[in-house]
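Memo to structure team: turn this sequence into structure tokens by end of day. - J.P.
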Amino acid sequence: DKIRDKIYQKNDYEGAIIDLKNHLQPNSIDNEIFTLYYDLGYCYYCLDKYELALENYNKYFELKKDTYSYLDEVAYHDRGGVKYHLGDYKGSLIDLNASIKLNPEDPSSYFPRAKSRFKLGLKKEACDDLNYYQNEETELDKEFDTFYNDCGCKN
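Reply from structure team:
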């Protein structure tokens, strides 16, 4: 749809936020309205507006309740990143663990989890995550080499 095109193809996060908010009128009836909150959270995250991102990711989880959504893994991943940026390393770790539990084969949550673990003083566990990420991810995060060296990990 047009909104997701703005977000994922054109990186027009500000424009997408306006459109998403228009979709979220008080009397909106949509069985999957929670996905709009995920998209809002993602837009705010991309704009480094972490408090607003967290608010919308929390609303996503509140509205979806126990319903499974294909977005759950990435929503936990993204909310974990937001919490990391806000200095909530324990909360970040909890969300990243949830993301990994939903899809342990996807290495994308291992690097941010390593960063949270390192901030919490869990160096060995951080190095384990970094080594897994390095071995499994095809495109390493641009911060990886510096962080890996700063942690003093060995493969």
